[in-house]
Fold:
Amino acid sequence: MTDTLPIRRAGLADIPACAAVANWWIDDTEWLPRDHPADVVEDMIREALPIREIWVAGDPIEAYLSFDPVGFRVGALFCRHGGRGVGKALMDRVKQGQKYLWLTTHEPNLRAQKFYIREGFTEVERFMPEPPETVREVKMEWRADEV
Structure:
């Protein structure tokens, strides 16, 4: 459970482990085509680190969440093992002190949508993302005053 998994801000040394979690999830998800090579995913995380809050859980890292504090966007949440409270713990950490958050998830990812609804998010729209992404997305929002 999460009380044995430390949650902390990611550093440069954590980038390969975060990329490994994301790449594992991408490769393990049948309905999701790989839009970016594995090394590009790692580069994307490296570029995000200075401008986002990236939180990691576990040692070794088994989950991470990327949050844009300027745009209030949860840009990524990847967990190697669902249903153990790790994603919730990361989301709770990001919600601290926030009044509003938004995110997108893939339309076929019903498990994620159910998780976000349990976390107080509501669906606001469905749309086709910009290329190279090809899977429809669902935009969801969370407001502290509605919880």
